Sequence to fold (423 residues):
Amino acid sequence: MARKTKKLTKTELDRKRRMTWWHEARFGMFIHWGLYSLIGRHEWAVNQERIPWEEYFALADTFRPKAGCAREWAKLAKAAGQKYMVFTTRHHDGFSMWDSQVSECTSAKMGPGRDFVAEYVAAAREQGMRVGLYYSLIDWHHRDGLRCLHDPAARRRFLDYVQGQLRELMSNYGRIDILWYDVPYPLPDAAAWEMRKTNNMVRKLQPGIIINDRGMLAEDYTTPEETIRAAPEGRAWETAMTFNGSWGYMDTPDEDYRDARHILFMLQQIAYGGGNFLLNIGPAPDGSVPPPAVRRLTRIGKWLKIYGEAVYGRVDRGGGLEPLNNYVEWTRKGNTAYAWLRHWPGERMSVGYFKGKVKRVSLITPAGPKALKFRHDKQKLEMWPLPRTCPDKNIGYGIVKIECASRPQRTMVGHYAERPLWQ
Fold:
């Protein structure tokens, strides 16, 4: 008897439609950049070091980024194989990176005299990127930013300020694809923040927008930070990760950056769990991207041009494909399994406990797919002839594509099964 498919509500159907591109994109660029970049010691420096506000905002006088820096970010994102970008329009420090009419602390009215949101949006669109805007709900500098917790009049003023800024961002820059909230402090719940009213306004202005869960409403997707942790089945999720332990600019040595192999491993783990990967860069005060990040992103992009089919599109979550020791991980699309080879097995590869009627096996290479011979029985799937060394000389990560007539599975029997990071 066929299993009945649950009928989706209108809200669920609307979400499914607007999330389609996001699920297929898989990999995005996060950009933390603002006055804190001039300090170069983490984006929370003004708070953690108790820097006086007069001293902090005086930094705006020396904030003179080079022309076209946003174009460099967008070109790098495209070269890296990233499909969307999220830019910090205002971080917790209250310095707005656009010409906000409800604040005097902006990049347009102070030092730079530029609307960086406008520059970013234009640059992202030039490169075919989906456009995301980050907005911090907390504002350390605003006179009512903390007072709003206990003073009703202060709360009204602060909410008017937040809603006014969001209205500007949703009205003045064309189509916006993502609204990325952060830190709903100090108000205790969504009702106090008037989040339903606010998000209704946002969606009225941007009908197709995707909203994250950091505004105290679940909305469209969950956002674990600096960890790979899947949301419950059926719930979209995105891991946001730093390159070097800091969101804002820090002049750290090359060895402090996650290397390209590790980033690919995280991308595989996230894709296996059905999630997205939002990898952060913290540009320098002049807007340039630190060279260690550029080198790694460029290498990852070259790899994805060849092997991207194992990542992009509607990759199925998990699917009962358990890792093979420490060298084979998986992603799956329907009846096709992709074996990610972190360590090269040699000229012959054997995968025990593999189930699913195998139709074709191929090795993806820079020169195109190469058909492999295979033998499949109840014990294992054997594949040959493989080259002696990994065909990917860029990062050393290989992909074997296994096409089946039914959903492939690999479940160990009688032994402890290794689990992916997100479980």
